[in-house]
Amino acid sequence: MITLAPDAQRDGLAGMMADLISANLRQNPERAKDFARLDVIITLEAVDAEVAVTLEFRKGSLIVHGSGHHKSAIRISASSELLLALAAVKIRLGLPALLGREAAALRRGLLSGAVRMTGAFRRPLQLVLFTRLVSVNG
After folding, report:
1. 3-state secondary structure of 27
2. CA atoms within a 13 Å half-sphere pointing along the CA-CB vector of 53
3. DSSP-derived secondary structure letter, 48
4. CA dihedral 36, 41, 43, 44 (to 10 degrees)
5. Domains, in order of start, for the chain
6. What would the mean pLDDT of 48-58 be, rounded to a whole number?
7. Is 117 helix (H, G, I), strand (E, B) or coil?
8. Predicted TM-score of the model (pTM)
9. Helix ranges, the chain (H)
């Protein structure tokens, strides 16, 4: 079940993330297992657009908030373009393929500091599950 919080009703990024995850679950029913295992709050911040969206996953449900959440376990900050690159990452053998051609911009962003992640190393499995859930190239 995916729900938009009241503060996300008019937020384009929040709506886009909710639609992306809904579509991926419909088109790839096997991803429901990943969705059921996600129990984490993730904030995505598009620094160039000065917007953030918080995804509150609770083992099979998702509440999408329209602003940064102070209790996020994982925070990913990058340009809008690099955040969208997360959805382009291919999944190989069940893991995000960061060495593939599709992930080149994301890889460069991670190496240059244009993509900043906090909390990801403390919750690597949750980050992998999230990446598989949002990838359109799974």
Report:
1. helix
2. 23
3. T
4. -10
5. 2-134 (3.30.1050.10)
6. 92
7. strand
8. 0.88
9. 12-27, 32-37, 80-85, 104-112, 124-134
